[in-house]
């Protein structure tokens, strides 16, 4: 029974990695076609860098998932990275749009946290929820 659960979790990790990869592509396309609201002298744009780094991390996670080499520590680390990237990206909106910091609490993008939670429920271990 334990082996079957581990096999199911391995399959779930591949699904999770593909959903994350699709999300990165979706957000990159949306960012590319959306009008930018950056001040004229801005040298650093956080969103493209964040998406690029996260795309690399997600690619590495996908390869490890296909090879069945995702350790419990890496899965926990990945969960922390997922939530951190999401929260930092949402937080950076008020900088980009020169709005009060309360904007990120009002924005519907905060609901993306629930997507991360839903993806983590594909595992059968409460520690990764």
TrEMBL record:
<keyword id="KW-0472">Membrane</keyword>
<feature type="transmembrane region" description="Helical">
    <location>
        <begin position="46"/>
        <end position="67"/>
    </location>
</feature>
<protein>
    <submittedName>
        <fullName>Adenylate cyclase</fullName>
    </submittedName>
</protein>
<keyword id="KW-1133">Transmembrane helix</keyword>
<feature type="transmembrane region" description="Helical">
    <location>
        <begin position="103"/>
        <end position="122"/>
    </location>
</feature>
<keyword id="KW-0812">Transmembrane</keyword>
<feature type="transmembrane region" description="Helical">
    <location>
        <begin position="12"/>
        <end position="34"/>
    </location>
</feature>
<feature type="transmembrane region" description="Helical">
    <location>
        <begin position="74"/>
        <end position="97"/>
    </location>
</feature>
């Amino acid at each position: 029974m334990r082996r079957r659960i581990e096999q199911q979790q391995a399959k779930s990790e591949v699904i999770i990695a593909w959903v994350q990869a699709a999300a990165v592509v979706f957000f990159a396309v949306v960012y590319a076609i959306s009008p930018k609201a950056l001040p004229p002298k801005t040298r650093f744009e956080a969103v493209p860098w964040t998406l690029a780094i996260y795309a690399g991390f997600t690619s590495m996670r996908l390869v490890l998932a296909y090879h069945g080499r995702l350790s419990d520590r890496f899965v926990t680390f990945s969960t922390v990275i997922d939530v951190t990237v999401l929260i930092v990206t949402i937080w950076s909106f008020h900088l980009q749009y020169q709005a009060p910091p309360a904007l990120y609490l009002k924005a519907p993008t905060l609901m993306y946290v629930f997507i991360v939670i839903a993806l983590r429920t594909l595992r059968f271990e409460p520690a990764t929820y």
